[in-house]
Every structure is written in structure tokens, then in C-alpha cells.
Amino acid sequence: MLAGFALCGLHAAASxxxxxxxxxxxxxxxxxxxxxxxxxxxxxRTRFQLRVDDDPALPEFLRxxxxxxxxxxxxxxxxxxxxxxxxxxxxxxxxxxxxxPRGLRNPGSFDSERHAMAARIAATGYVREQAAAEQLxxxxxxxxxxxxxxxxxxxxxxxxxxxxxxALALGDTRGLEDADWELxxxxxxxHLIAISGFHVGLVAGFFALLGAxxxxxxxxxxxxxxxxxxxxxxxxLGALGYAAVAGFALPTVRTVLMIxxxxxxxLWRRPLRIxxxxxxxxxxxxxxxxxxxxxxxxxxSFGGVAWLLWCLPQAGRRPLRDFLSAQWVATLGLLPLxxxxxxxxxxxxxxxxxxxxxxxxxxxxxxxxxxxALDGLHAGWGSGAWRLAAAAFDLSWPLFDRLGxxxxxxxxxxxxxxxxxxxxxxxxxxxxxxxGVPGKALALLLWLPLLWPDRGLPRPGEVELVVLDVGQGSAxxxxxxxxxxxxxxxxxxxxxxxxxxRAVVPALxxxxxxxxxxxxxxxxxxxxxxxxxxxxxxxxxxxxxxxEGVDIEGASECMAGSGWQRDGVRFRFLHPPLHFxxxxxxxxxxxxxxxxxxxxxLPGDIGEAIxxxxxxxxxxxxxxxxxxxxxxxxxxxxTAGFVAATSPRLALVSAGHGNxxxxxxxxxxxxxxxxGAEVLETPAGGAVxxxxxxxxxxxxxxxxxxxxxxxxxxxx
Length: 716
What we know:
Layout: H1 2-17, E1 27-41, E2 45-52, E3 66-72, E4 91-99, H2 112-118, E5 121-127, E6 134-137, H3 142-156, H4 162-170, H5 178-187, H6 190-193, H7 197-217, H8 227-245, H9 250-267, H10 274-288, H11 296-311, H12 319-342, E7 344-346, H13 349-377, H14 383-405, E8 410-412, H15 420-431, H16 440-443, H17 448-451, E9 463-467, E10 476-479, E11 484-487, H18 499-510, E12 518-520, H19 526-529, H20 532-538, E13 543-546, E14 556-557, E15 563-566, E16 569-575, E17 590-595, E18 598-602, H21 608-617, E19 626-628, H22 640-646, E20 650-653, H23 666-674, E21 678-681, H24 682-685, E22 688-693, E23 696-701, H25 702-705
Parallel strand pairs: 3-5, 11-12, 12-13, 13-14, 18-19, 19-20, 20-21
Antiparallel strand pairs: 1-2, 1-4, 2-3, 4-5, 4-6, 7-8, 9-10, 9-22, 10-11, 15-16, 16-17, 17-18, 22-23
Helix pairs in contact: 3-4, 4-13, 5-14, 7-8, 7-9, 7-13, 8-9, 9-10, 10-11, 11-12, 12-13, 12-15, 13-14, 18-20
């Protein structure tokens, strides 16, 4: 165990130590390297990975490094973009701007920094000058072959199911959009749609049968290698080849290693139980890639097999009953892990899997694999099999589409306390004990901390403010005992990244927000209003308030003097006044929240002129315990007079890490600190949670609340 911990620590330290040094953050480099994996072509950018050549002319930290890059559409020039020339396996010379891997940190958010460490990503960045880009060598290798197969599937299967056939045949999920993944999660089918261990097992079984048949046709071969050993070796070679076709995705590697353990035991004539194979496969994976322990798939794969081995040791005698029992065991046994890892549970999953597992696994997946094998022998031979796979897929998909569209399909769970997982695992163990064990009904109580955790809502008269980490923009959640509202919804890029979908909505789910009573849009700029549509799709609030002149359907005007009161907390607008023309930032809705335990001021993106106006016309309305620093800490706001008039104890900055505007300006931060305020910034600490209670103002940042050793900048 100590050796295992040491090995994991060495790999983690090596991965973190290989990341771009802080001194070279946002530096420009010209590198040569090979495109690895399959580039993801989006409407306005192409995302890809580049393995840098071991060039002595490059700095040491870039030689052989793996980079995650974007090539954006050329919007400021009439020159046609060249990003579509990127092909897997090709070698390029590119001019790049790089930075160390860094992500947003919110409750319930995807930990991109952990993912970068596990994937050994040294830096992220984008292509700077497309005129300087040069392809040095044409596409070659397994990735180029996979891309060619994917293109031929798209031609052979022109319908909507083409992207699913590509995923099943090659593990190519580039065609699946956010809506597709959401539907798959709602129906619990994500483990079937991309290449998984089951697919590798099918191929290994086929090659084992093929090897055994070959030995039966030529009995003389048995004089050299016994037939069982030959079949086992053929199974391993087939699994290894198919894992290469799938790009050595982690689920396939896990299965290959498990098959390798079984094959080694067979070659050495050593009897090996399934449980021993499982344990040895886990050891093998940790030896090959210790950071695989950070992936959800590792725990779900081994956890699922372990539950089945324990609960159904004699499975196989009654196929139908064993299949139903396996579904029950997998659903109940993996529910605690799924809830902790993904913050959600699929209520429609068990029913969908009863149909999908036999239909897809026995018909759709084999046809997809046969098509890939035939096309590998000769281009075009696999078209018929792929079309049959698509037809079989289309027969079942309407059922899953209907199940996934049900409002009860996906159950979002708030972040539970630390003890919820062991209690839920104990409950699952108790419920899966043999019949006759007493007190099983009591085990249901152990599920409560996981499935119905305390959301920690404020008491009457108290208020909670959560400044979400959305990059260069803002999104703030305000909660009282029975009232929740959102002030701004984060940035979004047309046909690109949407913080409302990727950051705000997951955070609201993790915080246990079940509905939003009101949305307030400070003004219409994309860094504040971009995520509005995504938020409204998931949380259709009763009211939407915005400045006069913002063209948004269903919005009412936020007007100085108007307000409302909930749970002993008063909300009141200080700006803009009646008939104030829409001037962008200067028209921001300035909201004041007054409670029995303190006051919060949210000024949006107002600048010096509006700050002076508020100080001159209503200085008695400005003092506050907590203030959101105007305009993300721009040097054109936070005047000395405004800072003195508000005199907060806590000043909060919502901005993007390393943003091109230089927010927050160091002089602005110093001004707030000189005024007696503690300054907390989302670029440094992630989401900021503030509570105004009878004990005073309590604040914490997400990065300090949940410290992780891979946090960007912690040791840099």
C-alpha cells in the first residue's frame, strides 16, 4: 500500500512539475509537433492535442510536452481559415500562446485541473498566427486511419444516428453535443454509447473463438501450442488491436489489462478465480497509470464488477433472472458512487438499460464492429453493416428519447457531507444481503444524507451570497430562507463556450437550488447576459428584471426605488432612475440587499460617472458590509469617493484568471484594502460564499473549502 501511494505521488508530482512554469505564463512559442487524437471541429474553433517534438531548440519544459490547443475562426480578417486542414497524425509547425492548465472552481463543477494532471497536459493555449502555420508531414498512423473510418461512416450513414454509430464503432464522440450527453445521462446509457470494456470483451471473445477454430482446422498446431493457450493469446491480441482502434481510451485499457491478467494465468497453467483477476487487473492498471485512480470510470468499472461477483457468484444458470438481478445489483450498488461522482441519479436508467443492454449489445454494437472490421480490410466494405447498425439503433432510440424527456428521468442531488458515501455504501450492502436478514427497512434511513442532504439554507432574516467562478463575467446567487435569485448569468460566446450551461447550472444543482424566483440582469453585455438562455431552460424563473433598453423577451425594468421583501430581507434598486437612457455598463442595475445582520451592494459594471452620481444623490444608501467591486475591478471604476462611501468589510471581485483586460487592477485592489476591506477574488479562490448571520459576515472560497494538491498555482 505504501509503495502504491508513493508511485501515485511520483506520477502526480511529475505531471504537475512538467506543466508550464509561471514565468512563461501567456508566453508565445513556435513549436513543431504531431496532432494526436481526433480534432474536434466546432462552429468557431477547432480543439486538438499536440505532442511537441523533442527539439533541442525548444525550452526544456516544452520538449515532448502534450498540449491542449484551440484554433479559432479568423474573425478579424478576410483571409480564409486554415483550421480545417488539421488532420490526426499530421505534423505541424505552429505559433502558440500558452498558459498552464487552469479551470473554474465552483460547487459541482468539472475539475479540469485534475483532468489535465491525469492526462499529463503540460499547457493549454491557442494558435496565434495562422499565416505562420505550416504542415510538415501528412497524416499518418492509427489516428489518421480512425479519422478516415469516421469520415466513411458519415458518408455511409447520413442520418442523425451517424454520430452514434461512430461512437460505438470507434469511440469517436466528437459528433455528440451537450444535449445528446444530457439525454444519455438521463437514461443512464453513457456506459454503452462510447466504446467500453464490454465492446473490447466482445472483440476478445470473437478472436478467442477464431483462434480455437483455427486450431481445430489444423490439429498439428496443438503440438506446438495447446488450443486453450492459443485461444487466450488470440483474445489478447484482438483486444489490444481494438483498444488501438479506440485510441487507447481508459475503459478499453482497463479491459485489455484484465484480459492480459487472465491470459497470463492461462499461459502459465495457473487457476485464477474471477475475483483474483479483478484484483490483479486493478494492480496492473495502477502500475501502468497510477493517475487512473482519479477517473470516475475506474471506480465504477471495478465497483460494478465487484458487486456482481459478491451478489451473483453463481450467475449463468438462469439467464433472464440473472440479467434482471444483475440490473438490480448494479443500480443499487453503484448509486452511491454515481451520486458522489456526478451529483445526479437516473430514475429512468434501470428501465432504459433493460432494453438497451440486450438490444445494443447483441445487435447494434456487433454490427458496428463488423462494419469497422470489414472497412479495415477494404475501404467501403463496412457500409452495409453500419447502415444495419443505424437502422437497429433508430428502432430503439425513440423509447430512450421519451424516457430522457420525462421530468423525473434525471434527479439532481446537492453536494452531500463527507459521511454520506460510507453510509450509503453500508445501506447498499445491507439491502443486498440474502433474504431473511432482519432490519432491511432501516437501511433506507442510511440513504438520507446522500439523497436528501441538508442544503444549509439561511434562517429567516439571514442572506447568503455566492459569487460563482465564471471567468471574465459575473453570476451571483442570492438566497434567503425561502427565496433564491440570480444576479447575472455568466458569459457566453456565440456558437462556443456557455458559462450558463457549463458553470452556473451545475453549481445551482450542487447548491441544492430547486427553483429560481427571480433573475436580475445587470445589463445586456455578453459577459453578464450570455448564459441567460441556458439558465432559463433549466430554471424558468417567474420574473426577469433588466435595465430599460435591453431587448430581452419577458423582461421588466429594474428601476431606482423599486424593490421587494422576502423572509425579513429587503431588496431595493438604487439605479437606473426612470427614463435613464441605456448606456451599457452605466445603465447597470445597482441592487442593495438589507438584512438584520448586514447589507450587500451589487453595482454591476458602473463606472466613475455613476459612482459619483450615487455618492452625490444618495450617500446614505451606499454603506454596506459586502460589496461586489464594480466592473470586475476595472481602473475606470472604484473611485476613492465610492470606496469611502461604501466602506465595506468585504470586497468581492468576479473576473477571469489572466484576462486580457488586466482585471482587477492592482491599484483598485489596493484602494479597497486601504479602505478597510478584505478583497476576495474568483481568479485566485474560485467561487466565494458569503453569509450574513447573527454571528457576522462569514466568507469562504471554494479552493480553500476543498483543497486539492493539483490546484493550479498552488505550488507554482
